Amino acid sequence: MSPLDPALYFDHSATTPPRPEVIEAMGLAMQESWGNPSSLHGWGERAAMAMERARQQLAELLNCEPETLLFTSGGTESNNLALFGVAQRYSTPQHLIISSVEHASVENAARRLQAQGWEVTRLPVNSAGQVDPQTLIQALQPNTVLVSIVHGQNEVGSLQPIAELGRLCRQAGVLFHTDAVQTVGRIPLDLAQLPVDLLSLSGHKLYGPQGVGALYVRPGVELQPLLRGGGQERRLRAGTQGIPAIVGLGVAAALAAQELEQETARLRQLQRQLAQLLASVPGLRLTGPSDLEQRLPHHLSYCTAVIPGHVLVREMSRQGIAISAGSACSSGQRIPSRILLAMGYSEAEALGSIRLSLGKATTQAAVEQVARSLQALLRSAAGSLEGQATQPLPSAPAAELAAGLR
């Protein structure tokens, strides 16, 4: 297999490569901190100290108390613990509010609660994928016990007004949870100021390891555990903690805190440059906020009716470039992006959605190369559909691109 150029990896919203410092710290933890942190002897104490150091590092990134952070296996578990942890406190079904553009781990958890008799309201979004706080006010009911709104939408990059949404929930005496998997480590978050009761994050989105995450639980908020077992993580997440992964998350958080301002500014500049290069590409339509300040700093998303998103992903991959598609696949059938459908896009456009997400290895030269490749592929596909004689690219024959539309 030929080597892959890290600069051409434009899928950082899916996962990020663990940083060398993270890998080194995890290796050292495997050698020196392999004890059970619940054990009372020296080996256990060493593991416990490593774990609590990581908790402190993560707390410093979020400006919260370390004891408010529970380690989990990642964003999906954190989201499930937030929703089911609140829901299981009630003996009878209550009312839950989410947005229509939540990650599958929130949407599917809400569906499960709905099947159990819970009333679930899905707030609509505008064409930029954002919730109007007024719709939240109108949706609140006397039996509303939890509102869960994603902070940074993973597919179209929309940033939600969580400060305002959280304030409204606090005024109503309703718990507020946000899925911040895409924003922690990418934009500043101050939990000492934000009116957030529960917040989910994942290590592999901020250059830490996969398989580890955390849930912030504001003091005074009560949850029921998902897992039954020992008393780890304040009796809310049973199971022996994975110390190497937790250590890696802590180091990633510490590095993110040090570099956040500078790296966010750098990504914003590259984001603007890529958006400008793609603005004139025929058939490519920006999805999510057109005001880039209202979207994730590393993120751009588009749709096109010229070619399905998964075909674009495949053809870009043949050129050594990684992007992602928004549509899903089930039993061999392409399923339009439910996020874009909720935003008012047609099924054809929702099938042609792509996402480009930048990261630490992204360079100006890589941005220019990706823009050229996308433009060439789209022109080739459009030319084939129109029956024009178009010179095919060596890695993406026009006939094969057009076949992807059938």
Q: Give the radius of gyration.
A: 22 Å
**Element-level helix/strand string:** HHEHEHEHEHEEEHHEEHEEEHHEHH
Distance between the termini: 31 Å
**Strand content of the residues, in percent?**
5-15%
Main sheet properties: 7 strands, mixed
The number of E-state strands comes to 13
Q: Please give the count of helices.
A: 13
Notes on the structure:
This protein has 406 residues and is α/β, with parallel strands linked by helices. 41% of the residues lie in helices and 14% in strands. It is built from 13 helices and 13 strands. The strands form 3 sheets. The protein has a 7-stranded mixed sheet with strand order 1-7-6-5-4-2-3, sandwiched between helices. A 4-stranded antiparallel sheet has the order 8-9-13-10. Helix 1 packs antiparallel against helix 8, helix 2 runs parallel beside helix 8 and helix 3 packs parallel to helix 4. It is globular and about 70 Å long. The C terminus is likely disordered.
